[in-house]
Amino acid sequence: MHEISIMSGVIETCQLEALKSRAGRITRISLSVGEKAGVLIDSLRFAFEIAVLDSMAEKAVLDIEVIPFMGECTYCGLKYHSPEGSLICSRCGGFARLISGRELVINSIEVDA
Amino acid sequence: MCQDCGCLETDVTMIDGEKPLHDHHKNPLSQPREISLKKNILHKNDEIARHNREHLNREDVFCLNLISAPGSGKTALLERLIRDLGQEIPISVIEGDLQTQMDAERIRSTGVKAVQINTGSACHLDAEMIHKALHQLELPRKSLLFIENVGNMVCPTAFDLGEHKKIAVISCAEGEDKPAKYPDLILVSDVLLINKTDLLPYLDYDLAKTKAAALKIKPQIKIFTVSATKGFGLTAFYDWLKSNLQP
Fold it and tell me: Of the residues A34, B9, B122, B178, which has the fewest C-beta atoms closer than 10 A?
C-alpha cells in the first residue's frame, strides 16, 4: 500500500504548484503511470479519495493515463509491448532495453481562480 | 446562492456593514486553467536519494539495498556475511522493519554498527529515512553498507534510496514462481540471491525454473544460489561484492 504515500506526495506537489499560480482550488489532476511502475491503479484511486480530504484538491477529478511497458531489442531493433514486463525480445529472444512502462509522472493540473 | 460557499452572490451589505466578498467572487467569469507540470511523482524522494548517493560516493562506500518477502533470510544472510567478511571489509547495516529493534540487535551482536528504522505502518523505506540513518552512522572509507528493506516484494521497488545496487532475495521454500509473480522486483534488481539451497533435498522445487523465470524478465540480472545457514555458494557472491569495492 505505498500508493497512499505516493498519492500524498502528488497532492502536496499539486497544492504547491496551485499556490504558486495563485489558484483557489484544483479541479483536475492528470497522471501518467507506467504499466510496470509497481503501483496498482485501483489503489491509487482509493488513496486519492483519502489524500484529497481537507486539501485544495478536495473536489478534483483524477485522470490516470497508463503507459504500456515497451522494450526495444538491442539485436533486431524490434519495439514490442510486454504486459508481463519482460526485457527479452518477443521476436528474436535478444536482450532488450526499457523504453517505457515505469513512469510515475504528474502531467498537469487544472485550477480554478 | 453561491454553490461554493453558500453566500449571497448579489451585491448586498451584511448586518455588520461588510460586503460578502470571497476570492472566487472577484472574478466570477474566470475559467479553469491548466498548468503543465511534467513532474516525477517521486521527485522529492529521488532528490534525497541522489543526495544520499553523492554522500556515499564521497565516502567511497558501496551500498546495497536488500529487498525480499519476510522470512527469506535477509538478516541471516547479513549475519553470515559479517562473520565471513567482517574482518576483511568494514560493514555497516541499516535495518528496516515496521516495529522492534530485533534485527538491529541481531546485527549488533556480530559486532557491527546497525541503525534500526521503524516505519510504523509504512511498507517500504524511503530516501528520507535513509538520509536520517546515514547521519547516525560513521562510515569508514572502502566499506560496505547494507540496507535491509521492510519485508515486502512490491512497494520497496518504487523507492530509490541512494543505493548503488538492488539485491532481490528469494528463498527456495517460497516456490519457483516468485520471479514471474513479482516481475517489478526482478526488473529493478541487479542481483538475485536464491537462498536456503540447503533445503533443496526436502522440497519439490525446480531451481532451474526460478532462474529461467528471472532471466526471462531481466536477462542481465546476476544470479547467485546460496545458503546463508550452511554457507553454500557464498564465495561467488562475496567475490562479486569485492569486485565492486575495487578502486
Answer: B9
